[in-house]
Amino acid sequence: MALVMALLLATGCYSGLEEFGPDGVGADGEGDDAGEGGDDAAALCGDGVAQTGPTKLRRLTRSQYERTVRDLLGVTTDAAVGFAPDERVGAFKSNAVAPVGDLQVEQYMDAAETVATAATVDLAALLPCDPAAIGEDACADEWVRQLAPRAYRRPVSEADVSRLMDVYATAKADADFDAGIRVTLQGILQSPWFLYHVELGDVTSPADEGVPVALSGHEMASRLSYFLWDTMPDDSLFVAAEAGELATVEGIETQVARMLADPKSQEAIASFHTQWLGVDELESLEKSPTAYPDFDPALAQAMKEDTASFANWVLAQGDGRLETLLTSAFTLSEDPALLALYGVELPAGHVSGEPIALPGEQRAGLLTQPALMARHAHADQTSPVHRGQLVREKLMCQILPAPPPEVDNVPPDPDPDATTRERFEQHSADESCRVCHELIDGLGFGFEQYDGVGAFRDEEGGLPVDASGWIVGTSAINGDFDGAVELAGMLAGSVEVRDCMARQWFRYSLGRMDTAQDECTMDRLATAFEDSDHDVRSLIHEIVLSDAFRYRLAPEEQ
Amino acid sequence: MSSRKRINPSSSRRAFLGSLGAAGVLCPFIPLLERELEAAPGDFPLRLIVLFSANGTIHENWAPTGGESDFTLSPILSPLEAYRDQMIVLDGLEMSRAGVGDGHQKGMGHLWTGSTLLEGTEFEGGDGGTAGWGGGISVDQHVANAVGDDTPYRSLEFGVQTKGATVWSRMSYAGPNQPLAPEDSPDAMFDRLFADFDVDASELDRLKAQRQSVIDLVKGDLDSLMVQHGSADDKLKIEAHLESIRAIEQRNQAEAPTCEIPGAPGGIDHDANDNYPLVSQLQSDLLSMSLTCDMTRVASLQWSRSVSNTRFSWLGIEEGHHDLSHLGDGDQSMIDKLTQINTWYSEQVRYLLDALAALPEGDGSVLDNTLVVWGNELSRGNSHGNRPIPFVLLGGGGGQLEMGRYLQYDNVEHNRLLVSICNAMGLADQSFGSTDPGSGGLPGLT
Asked: Least enclosed by CB within 10 Å: which of A74, A451, B258, B444?
């Protein structure tokens, strides 16, 4: 394969390090630590005045739709597969910005009809009552009053019930009772109250325009639930919401501890890590069958699950610390093809769910996992650029400075007798390219011991691999290193990486980027993360207690 | 929501001509319109199709040789030889690089909108900055707003593995910040268009009545939300949802078009890389059927997306398209492979044209009454260039344009092509998009 490195980035970089900053707008550093005492309901930031950036009206993502249907109706469905893809905000799936078009609304109609048909196959299981015993209309009314508050994630009014019973009555009159239930369910599933994360705030304390409003208990229950479970609230959350417990720090902490201990949190933790690191759609990754004959969708799926199970183990069974995520060498995977790629065998007497140790000189945490290495590579070779970019953008939340407008970003011609690194170094020798590639290449070269699907290698095409690298532009970890294992250890000690981790979790939790108005929250998160020795679970607790999580500022028109 | 509203529901060519007289504007295409006016009632509708393929082309193998009318097609466009009399190759058009976004982002977002991207933090570009969605209505939607009221769908967006919802993968916009998702699945598109056709009449009536009661419910809920939501951004979303549900309601109440139902695609993994050619053909088949059934008069077909990394394994090409497109010009293998890829796209365009040409309409074919516009987000992949963008006009276009030509421009803004598209479709626009210099349509086109 005589190919020169392809560049995602335009090569060249003239503005240098001084313009480096986090890609969000919020600042870090030593902020005022407002402390939590006093009135539980009061804002944590400022002088009792909540500070938060705007949160847009969001639609359920595909996975949220399917899981909500599952928890609402007990129906396992892939009905959202056909939806137009989810938007992303930064790395994370969040339908926050673009409004729906005809196509999407028709897709909702189609999915609702499919789900409603499946859910009404066994009416006795769906209904809370026996229509033969108490009468069809009475039973329908009871069912609506039970289902609608859960589907809409809020108490329903008589007007809501009446609108739904109109649908029931029309369909029943036209056909029969079963149709009445089915069509009503279609309606519930197409209601904006079902499809959107509606957040109007606590109507008992309305805020002025442009001022953050405290969420209602039910809205808080939904935020918690979709953040930590990627699905609708359960009964316990609804009860807590109705009891006003989600307006207090104690009530929120009780729920978060319970929710993180629930297996449903594994789905959200998996989603966070796979989306953050760009491997959530790995099963559709294409590789050259000539270069990587063993790579197929099943292996890609195993790689993705490897990342998810690793992260879940660290957060649930492990110490939850960032350093552990970045440096531990083990896998939970039992997939034979993936274990072969790792070069290990299933240990004798292996118990499913127990970590399988990986060679410590070859692997270190998330970064060297095959999922990440395969994703940040080309179809037939590695990509130091993509891997350097992975560290800068995903781990350090940095955006690389823009190339100079006059730069010629056509890469040099290939040389069949050179390693990837050697070929890559050719264009880095150009002064106009060099400054920027200093930032990327030093990191990316460190991953050259992992081929385009993440297998460890000492040589490339008969030539020895040089995985030495360097890191610049950081506050405390600048220096040389040899290989990604050493790099991962350095990154675990980086202030930039720690603050970025907090920032990424924040973005995931609310499905939006951080803004200047979230500065106080970001400061608190950074401090709390530091104080807990970088335990991600503590970070999660701090996020849900933050102003940004407990209040909503409605956005103005773009 | 003004951008989603009909620009002028009655702006048919006839109404347009009437207003022209009052305004005293003279345009070079008026004689053509008058010619059409003189035609007998029952004229066939004029349709617009916009096509997209990604990552630029290899200009030296794309541009024809020769003069305006005695040109010889290049290797890349040679599959379209049979349509050289219904073709205008447009060389030398430039796409503005104003505003935020990297080369691919701008290329995709500017292509049919002629407008700069919105500022935003959603999409991190390869240029060190961030960008939001596209900043204006796209030309297909602008035309659809004017000509789409008489058909069940104002427009239809077909995709072939366009994948994620990002500024790199959306080209059609109902307005600023309102990207329209294409349907990537031929099966889903078939169901959308034709599923109700084989339901028996009484069952269909019942289905429609049930859907109507659900539509009423959803409209009621949206209305109540609208009252409760004070934020302008929230209201915009609710209004867009309302407008969509109203469009669905209209279709639900309308008589189904009389039309022969094509065969169903029959189930296919439309996201699998190696199914790309098959999906392309299925979508082209459905697109041509939707036009001949008059289900819409405006359609788009988007092959992959900007930064497309489709692997053209069926051409024996192992590397991803985008990876290839960044190789240096000294790499002959890259030139050969990208020429192969772009030639393959010409074959797909021919497939669509063949399908449209095979559908009789009056003395001619559906293709005679269709204007096809094929564009790209870049000129060349390895330079991320914005000039010349390879544009080709195809089809009879209802006789609005003088076809069979190779036109060479000297870095003329592509907004002027967008204006010409509007004019050819009977709209009076004299500028299009935020980057338009306001010089009107492309000179020499009609």
From this structure: B258
